[in-house]
Amino acid sequence: MRVLIDACLPVKLQQHIPLPGIATVRGMGWQRLRNGELLARAQSEFDVLITMDKSIPSQQRLSQYSIGLLIVRARSNRLPDLLPLIPKMLAALPRAMPGTAVVIEE
CA–CA separation, 51 vs 73, rounded Å? Predict the structure, then answer.
């Protein structure tokens, strides 16, 4: 499974998610892309985008993209607030099917 971490999350989160091929929006040089552009670009290389941007499903027609969304709801986007949610993220990744969004909460 190829996973992309959105620019709204810390880059260091990548080091704590034990998956091969995980990348960040910043590492790909895509941090200036808006949500629709990001989804369109990412869908050809990634299966799931992990984000904290809860507005994407209401702003984009997810069914037109072949990438799934994993929306993380935590107290903040700081690494200490996200680390406890990693097991839930890993468990939810298979449910983030193309064109859908799965929400992970504290």
Answer: 9
